Amino acid sequence: MYLELKHLRAVRAIHEAGGLARAAAQLNLTQSALSHQIKGLETLAGVELFLRRAKPMRLSPSGQKLLRLAERVLPEIEAVEEELRGDEEGRSGRLHIAIECHACF
Q1: 26-50 core/surface letters (b: 16 or more CB in 10 A; e: else)
Q2: DSSP secondary structure of 8-33
Q3: CATH classification at residue 11
Q4: Is the whole-model pTM more than 0.85?
Q5: According to the model, what pLDDT value does residue 66 have?
Q6: Strands, E, within 26-83: which ranges?
């Protein structure tokens, strides 16, 4: 298992929502699937990322470090994703229009 964008998005969503249920809904996941993602990430990292007994659910010091990384990286990635979507939909690029009009004068 590797650190993936979905992990960064999950940490950010849980932090912003204050818990798994609301974060899962925002990410279009079940609460169980989101919990599984976080547990897998914690196993990978070898640290606890959330203080689960706190209400609302809070980040541990390691989780705070990961959130700072997510807050730096995700806006850049999301901007690239949006730009690429714009390219596919034809919303970006240059358009050159030339008109030849002999009868204009």
Answers
A1: bbebeeeebbebbeebbeebeeebb
A2: HHHHHHHHHHTSHHHHHHHTT--HHH
A3: 1.10.10.10
A4: no
A5: 96
A6: 50-51, 58-59
